[in-house]
Amino acid sequence: MTVLSHPSIRIAIVRARWHADIVDQCVDGFIAQWTSLGGNAADVEIFDVPGALEIPLHAQMLAKSGRYSAILGTAFIVDGGIYRHDFVAGTVLDGMMRVQLDTNVPVLSAVLTPHNFQECESLIAFFRDHFVIKGEEAANACAQILDARAKLTLINA
After folding, report:
1. Does 109 carry a binding-site annotation?
2. Is position 128 annotated as part of the catalytic site?
3. Suppose 34 and one of 91, 120, 139, 154 were both cysteines; which one would form an S-S bond, judging by CB atoms 3.0 to 4.6 Å apart?
4. Residue ranges for the chain with pLDDT beneath 70
5. Model-level pTM?
6. Please, which residues bridge with residue 46 across strands?
7. CATH 3.40.50.960: does it fit domain 3-156?
8. Using an 8 Å Cβ cutoff, are 30 and 137 in contact?
9. Which residue among the candidates 15, 84, 98, 149 is catalytic per the annotation?
10. From the centroid of its chain, how far is CA 112?
11. Is 150 helix (H, G, I), strand (E, B) or coil?
12. Is 77 annotated for ligand binding?
């Protein structure tokens, strides 16, 4: 039995609903890769939040529940002209980092912000494809961190 197929492994994915057609590709890529690594799709629970700024608080609540081995936050933050998207991305990532340091639950990020994004089909298609890759990378990172934590547990036992 691998660490990924252990019955106590539960993964939470917190996904922002802005640009859902793009963000959902990350979730699909994560689950496909997770299962190919030996994990179970049923162990991945998805939580929706309105936007990226809501991810850290939701991740904190999930981490404090004690139900999840790791949490993935995913969002697509673009310059909407109201406030700086780089500020939003930095705030979200800082919050996610604080959650994992405060709760000892790994919080992975697939929160991406492009330098330039326009609502045109070629860029939308590019980022849809890119988010599949980011989901796969997040699943790989999740498996690696859970494996590393399992080894630490054995060393500290």
Report:
1. yes
2. no
3. 139
4. 1-7, 80-83, 115, 120, 153-157
5. 0.90
6. 13
7. yes
8. no
9. 84
10. 11
11. helix
12. yes
